[in-house]
């Protein structure tokens, strides 16, 4: 799994790329990635994933991986990651909402997390 950093450079979640999932620091499922869309565990569209980072529905950067590019914001220094959780149990997908129109990219950080 790969650490996902927030606007302060802290690890906020893990990317389980093999299953296209965003996992909490404790190992529970937070969101899934389908193409460029990100869905929460109830199937609601909560943002977009592209170039190694997630943007919320307003276009602000939520989390980013070390290899992310095209953020449009200044990256903070990366804090050391915590211990990686056990691999989560991959459950079936929930029905997913239709994604809304993609907003313009914002040169700002998201303050709230959608998951």
Automatic annotation (TrEMBL):
It comes from the Bacteria. Residues 2-110 form the 4-fold beta flower domain. This is 4-fold beta flower domain-containing protein.
């Amino acid at each position: 799994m790969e650490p996902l950093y927030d606007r302060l450079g802290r690890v906020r979640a893990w990317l389980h790329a093999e299953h296209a999932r965003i996992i909490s620091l404790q190992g529970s499922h937070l969101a899934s990635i389908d193409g460029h869309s990100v869905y929460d565990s109830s199937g609601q569209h909560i943002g977009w994933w592209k170039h190694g980072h997630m943007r919320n529905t307003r276009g602000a950067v939520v989390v980013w991986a070390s290899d992310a590019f095209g953020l449009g914001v200044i990256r903070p220094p990366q804090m050391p990651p915590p211990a990686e959780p056990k691999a989560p149990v991959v459950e079936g997908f929930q029905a997913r909402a239709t994604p809304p129109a993609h907003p313009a990219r914002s040169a700002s950080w998201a303050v709230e997390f959608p998951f």
